[in-house]
Specification:
single chain
Length: 90
């Protein structure tokens, strides 16, 4: 059964519902969340730019986040990290 969560102390947090999680065919963990029912508390009550968000934690130590505000974050697990705010609410 899906459960709603809130990231309480973060002013940019939004309520979300877990959609799914598990391990893909490459053995990497993923978790998907749905923000469609949220008001986006950090955005002046506007709906999120993207109702879906997910992350992957890969076996090689890297991880990737696709956020509901349209931004993405990648960490290669070896000290390199990249953040792309494209589509993020300003």
């Amino acid at each position: 059964m899906p459960s709603s969560k809130s990231n309480g102390g973060n002013s940019n947090s939004s309520d979300y519902t877990y959609k799914s999680s598990g391990t893909n065919s490459q053995g990497n963990h993923y978790c998907a969340r749905d923000y469609s029912g949220s008001s986006g508390s950090g955005s002046g009550g506007q709906a999120p730019a993207n109702n879906n968000a997910y992350h992957y934690s890969n076996q090689d130590g890297s991880y990737y986040y696709s956020n509901h505000d349209g931004s993405t974050y990648y960490n290669d697990g070896q000290g390199g990290a990249w953040y792309d705010p494209s589509g993020a609410k300003k």
